[in-house]
Amino acid sequence: MAPRIIPFDAYASEYDGWFKENKQIFRSELQAVRMLMPRFDKALEVGVGTGRFAGSLGIQTGVEPSGAMADLARNRGITVVRAVAEALPFVDQAFELLLMVTTICFLDDLDLAFRETHRVLTGGGHFVLGFLDRDTESGRVYEERRNRSRFYRDARFRSSGEVLEVLRQSGFCDTTSVQTIFGSPDTMQTFEPVKPGHGTGLFVVMRGRKPTGVCVSRQI
Predict the structure, then answer these.
(1) Through-space distance between the first and last CA atoms of the chain, rounded to whole angstroms
(2) What angle do CA 219, 212, 64 make, to 5 degrees?
(3) pLDDT at residue 1 in the model
(4) Comparing C-alpha atoms, which of 123, 127, 122 is closest to residue 95?
(5) Cβ atoms 153, 11 nearer than 8 A
(6) 214 pLDDT band (50/70/90 cuts)?
(7) Cα separation of 67 and 55, whole Å?
(8) Do residues 134 and 143 lie in contact, with contact meaning Cβ atoms separated by under 8 Å?
(9) Which superfamily is assigned to 6-209 in CATH?
(10) Nearest-CA neighbor of 177 among 197, 155, 194?
(11) 150-176: average pLDDT
(12) Is the pLDDT of residue 115 over 90?
């Protein structure tokens, strides 16, 4: 078992309980994801976890390496395949939409995972990902506290600039982003607004499109 998976198998219920204890954070993040979600018929969430986002967004298929987390997602009606982002067990162009939320900080190979995403998307399909921006004020706090968390101890937080560059190198076009959570999550009591762009909000959602031809469109 990979070291990063161990705490998620051991403490899956605790992880899932975080969403109940931090309803306003989850609500804000979910709204940010929704703002960049295109219409879809067939979608996949990679790193589906316990299924909180997939269940709320109507995504019926997920990939998750942790067996305990996958079981909780299945209890929410999601079909879960045990696999990792770097080796997706699907044929080329299988999905119109692929979602990752707070997943990229746990990936062993970000470039390979994004290439796999590109492979399984149809031409014109969208990749939507949400992550904690390391280069924001709150992101730097998360980085400093990383070793105190059983879940984030082995995480590698990314900056918006880094993620955007890998998206482009992986062949995605029409990239756009929104952000939320502008204060400290430790003291957050109310729903946070969702604003365009990135750079100040801890939680960033980016979207890229797999082109049907040469990528010539404007980027953010």
Answers:
(1) 38
(2) 80
(3) 44
(4) 122
(5) no
(6) low
(7) 18
(8) yes
(9) Vaccinia Virus protein VP39 (3.40.50.150)
(10) 197
(11) 93
(12) yes
Residue 142, token pair as written in the block:
């998360």
> Please, which pLDDT band fits residue 6 given cuts at 50, 70 and 90?
confident
For the chain, give the mean pLDDT: 92
- Mean per-residue pLDDT for 173-191? 89
Pairing type for strands 195-196 and 173-180 reads antiparallel
Radius of gyration of the chain (CA): 16
Residue pair 136/202 in contact by the 8 Å Cβ criterion: yes
DSSP string, 59-101: --EEE-S-HHHHHHHHHTT-EEE--BTTB--S-TT-EEEEEEE
Contact call for residues 102 and 30 (beta carbons, < 8 A): no
Angle at 92 between CA 86 and CA 93, to 5 degrees: 110
**DSSP for 2-30, written as a single string:** -TTTHHHHHTHHHHHHHHHHTHHHHHHHH
What phi, psi does 54 have (nearest 5°)? -60, -45
Query: Which pTM was predicted?
Result: 0.93
In the chain, the amino acid numbered 209 is R
Q: Domain limits of the chain?
A: 6-209
The secondary structure of residue 199, as a DSSP letter, is S
Tell me how far apart the alpha carbons of residues 127 and 74 are, in angstroms, rounded to a whole number. Answer: 23
CA dihedral over 73, 104, 152, 182, signed as positive or negative: negative
| CB burial string 46-61: b at 16+ within 10 A, e below | bbbbbbbbbbebebeb
